[in-house]
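Ticket #4471: structure output looks truncated?

Reporter: J.K.
Steps to reproduce: submitted the chain below (1465 residues) through the standard prediction queue, then opened the result file.
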Amino acid sequence: MELVSALDLLKIKTVSRVWVDSVWGLEFTEAEPLDVAVEDELISNGPDAFRTVYKLLLPFATDGEGNAENVWTVLGDSGISTHALVAVLSHFVVRRNFKTADLTYRLVALQAASLYLLLLGIPGSIANKVFHPVLFDACLDLAKKCWPQDSGKKRKKDAFKSSQGVSKGRKRSKPHRKDDEEEMEADVFGESNEDEEMLFSGRDLLEIRNGIVLLVKTLLKLLTRFSLKDKPQCVLKCAKIFTQLTHFEPVIGELTFEKEPVIDDMGMLPELAYHGLKLLCLPKQGDGTEAVKLVFHRLLYVLLMMSEGDSSRPSLLVPGAAVFTARDQAIKFVCHIVDELKEVVVLPTLCILLQHICVQMVDKVEYRSSGAQTVVKLLAKMPCAKYASFMQWLHAFSLHSKVVRRMFALDVAMALIEQPERQPESSLSPEEAIFLQHKFLVQVMVFGRRSDRAPSVRGHALSCLARCLELQSPNTVENIQELFSATSAQTVLETEGCEVTSNVHETNLQKMGINFKTIEMTGKGEVTTFESKETMALLKRRSSDEKTNVRKSALQALMGLLKHSVIPCTQENLAILSDRCRDPAVSVKKKALQCLMDLLAALPGSSLVQMAWLRGVVPAIVDSESSVQEKALECLDQAIIGQIKSGGTYSNQHVSQKLAWDLLGLLCGESQDLGRYFSKAFVIWSKQNKFPSAFVNHLISHTGLEHASAAWLLLSKVSGSCSRLNYGKILDAWDEMIRTSNVPVSTSCDILCVIGNIAAHLNDETKSRIVDDIMKWLKSFEVPLEIIGASIETLFQLLKVETVKDTQRMLNKHCGELVSICESYLSSVILNEDGLQNFNEDLVVRAFNSLTPYPYVKHLYTLGVAALQCPAQVGKRTSLLVQSILASNVELPSADNPDEPPATQPLSQFKASSLPTVVRAHAFITLGKLCLQNEDLAKSCIPALARELEVSTEVPVRCNVVVVMCDLCMRYTTMVDRYIPNISACLKDREPLIREQTLILLTNLLQEEFVKWKGSLFFRFVAVLVDPEPKIASLCEFCLVHLLLKRNPTMFSQHFIECIFHFNSYEKHEKYNKFPQTARERAQFSLQGAKNKEKRMKIYRFLLEHFTDEQRFNITAKISQTILANFVDGILPLDAEGAEILSDAFDVLSLKEIKLSAMRSPVERDEQQDDEQLAMANAVMQVAQKKLISQVQKKNFIENVIPIIIALKTMLEKKRFPVLKDLMGYLQVMMQDYRSEVKDFFAADEQLAAELEYDMKRFEKEQEMEQQMSSRRVTDSRPASTLPSNVTAGAALATVPASPSPSVGRTVLAVQATPQMPGSAPPCFLSPKNVGSSSRRQTLSTSEVLSKARTAARASRLLQGRAGSASNQNTPVDGSAMISRRLQSSTTGDSSVANRAISTPQRSMTEVTFGDGLSVIFSAHGTEPKYPGNKDNMLFLMSPDKPHAPPKQWNVESPLCRKARGHRL
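Returned output as attached by the reporter:
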């Protein structure tokens, strides 16, 4: 028979019976290998022999039962043992390492495995015991093992080892560099040498693939006939292999699962794999629910875009077309299974699959986005009831403790919002129908995470909110409008947290062997009501959040709300976007710029939006970051420059063109202050040759139209960088401006600027004509001040020639003429009485028209700007005339010290001036310009200017003098340097404008290093941090941190110690706070006293926040050595002023800002990465770093700080200073970190350690009592006699009056541990050593009683004072009865309780109780209150005022003395 002949090729009969029994007995594991000769012969025949047997057995597996009987009979009649056949097949299937196997061996193994699966499919295989689970699993593993693992990798050079060159008669290849033991080790640990693996050609890989296809097809045919119902492990193995094959190779076309396929017609492995998974879901292979659950579990990782691999954790696949295709195919297959099977069977499993997708999602954007889309597609297959149930679970899931899960819940919610809203079924309850609405997703799922504790989550929630607004869905926008509606309050379900309930431990959820079961989420929720104002305030806070991504998301959300008119476009709301353009983070600045661009594109007609756009974009041109500059320039180019077209084609219908001219119009009008930033943009663009002649001609074409002012503004910026212009059009505009007077001032200045830019291209005749026009204009003194300055600048450009000498000669001629005219006018007014009278009459006339400047002002201004161009033409007479205007009519105060001349001298050579303030203010500006050109004049005027800052009461004058002094500082740095204290004193000026301007000017001088941090400048500068104007304080913070600290990173730490002395006005230190300052300046900048304590602490906190860790470490030691140690050593006196210094020092040491960043920023679990290995590595590094730093810091604290603190504590206790409370507060803070180290330090002195521990406990109790008393003062206004009967012992003690009261008489006396003098400090904290100095040893309970009594005495004073008016109406209260009201003990119970000592606690030491009326305190006068009971049950306390009796002699004799006396006897 042909089958028998084919089987003979497999050498079945030559195989030893013993070997076959051994293989079956060991269950195909650890068996002896096949005889080498037999193996070589089988391999030499190749896979053809196995393929022939397979073809001959195939009809028996597909035909009816008639032929099936003959197979096993034929084998038996031929003497071929079935077990021997299976053993031979297993030898090629079960192999340790296939990496070194050649092509022939792999093909033989695949054919042998296919042949074994074919035998299993032949009827009767069960009866003949052909099936074995180990061999079955090994056959399935061949699909993976035989395929080269590095087939998709790049091959190494010189490493190709073709399998075609291996001869058929050659034995199996063995490792060339490792022996068998090394090979086994590499296999066990998953290590392999790439050089030892066989590399195959494309043809070889095709043959191996065909072998795998045959194996899978045989397996599919087997599953159609052979049931694995009672073999769950085999089903699991099949599901695993099929899942891996789903993405084995790309699919050509699209997979369809609706039609029943023919196995032989399928050729793609993914198609075969999905068909196999479908077969596993059929009831034939087991319980339908369990089978579907198993298949869905295996597909979970395909949906998550993960690879199971050989490790215990799945690994992420690189997102690509193949991975996304495999995911889409898996989604399609799951949907098909849901449609095919009954809902009762598959829907619960589908819900489990969705839950595990959510739980096992990783924190990567691409994977989260893909997973959210997967969840949405699978949810579409759920009916409304199941959908609502899952959404309820998802809401609880969105409150999970892990950040990635809250993030993914937001992604799913956002993906669901993008889908059409589901309509609830009639059978759905109203409570369940809520979960189907988009309103629930928007207001609860998305907006509910707005205040999440994790920055990444709250930022993502705001981003999702912004995306919701862009969906073009009316319902979604309405839902968001409800949140910000001002008509009614909104209600949102809030939940504090949730718990995960599952049969699997939380840490094992991502392991491969987890149970695929339902994950229950339970959370405690409550309904929170909020108003739109609170929502808007929250959004503003998020825009200034500490995290960058939150600020960016908040800006995006705000832009969307403004864009869709959810909130009004008010100036306040738009200012948020504009202000963020100056954010410290570069990404936030760029995001704010983009948001402004998007908002401007959406609302081009809003003037408020246009103004906000200019306020945000234009200043960003001068940003320190080049990328922000480029973004701002891009915005300007896109909105303005790129929209400039020819005037003939302009129309208001062109929205972009109209917007560009509207923006330019605002720059000419309301936003003129942005002109200097706008000019910077054209400086940058001119270097790039951005403006061709066509662009300039387009601008010129607009000069005669409605946008003439804006066109001239742009021409003034670009005309200097363009050589070819239409000069005729410009000159015509100049002639028109000269003839008419209706040209706006800003436009006139722009035209003058254009004339100056093109002056080099004009001929001499034209220049001369324009110079004459300008001179005629200036001599009339009728033009505004702005035009006067622009005219002088243009005049300089027109008179400029090749040589400097000739240019100066021309300037002396024309500008000198203006100086002479101005000098003549000033002298006519000042030196002639008639002139001054005429001037006063002019003042009366112009009082009715305040907008027109005085001619006097115009002459002064013209004199100043002209004198800068011709300093040689300015004589001494001119400067004297200007100085005479400045003579102050203020009576100067006498100097503090008459022996020393004042630092500054007034202009006393002139009589007092009665000119108005505006004239004097301009005169100072003119004098400053004269001083810039005349050093001798500056030397004489600078002291007068400085004095003017001190005595002037006119705001414009002081403001201009500050500007002049700072300008002169740049020119004459050494000369002005001694008057920097006068300038810095203006930081405390009563006018906010002067304080702000002084702050800006000093910052500029410090940046350019014209001024150094000398004297009191630093302390005056940082004092602005507590300015009453929040705007000025914020500006100071910006200047210090972002402008000055970068240039001098150590300036905060260098001045910190002196800050403590300076702000407390402490001058007893030999080194600090010794710079000269007047009494007025000292009073201005002093922050001394308790009322300024919070201001000082604010400054200290700000400085410490910007310290480096090294500076924080050093400053701690420096405070101890410089301040605390000086008081201990007696260098500084311990008086009231010193107590203030100590109080500040202890408060600074207690601040959290002084702790090292590694010590005060623990790792938050919410922010850890989900990659456990990476998270663990980061945690270990941070813990090690913290431990190392902590050890160094603790060593410094123990060695250098603790001894000083202990010594200082002893001194303060002796002198009973209130600052002892601050010291104990500092110890309380430090003991939290160093408690164990302190114990080690005091190991040699246990008594000192006990004292410190005791005092700390006492201090904590005192704090608790003070807190109770403070709360009692607020809530309790009743007199002491009306206490309720259920007060505690401590509260009852607190009602004891501190001194005899007229209403109480002498029933109760003061109880204090130590007598105090009137007006002395509060009682200090006594150590056990001090307490033990009394007549008898006091127990701990006695000390506690005394402590409570002292506190009660202080509190009762307040209560008695509060109840003063009502005390006359109340019955006198017996003090002892008041104390014991709550503390009665029952005498009717057990005798042991009734007869107990009165001082024995009833329950615990926390409530010390006494018998009713049995508390007796002896008075200092020796009188005893009478009590009708047994005195043995009383506790007698001696008054602290009574002198201590000498200690009683103990009758104790040493045993040694007794023994010696016996010997003598």
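Triage note (M.O.): checked the attachment and the full token line is present. Residues 377 and 1428 are 90 Å apart (CA to CA).
Status: closed, working as intended.
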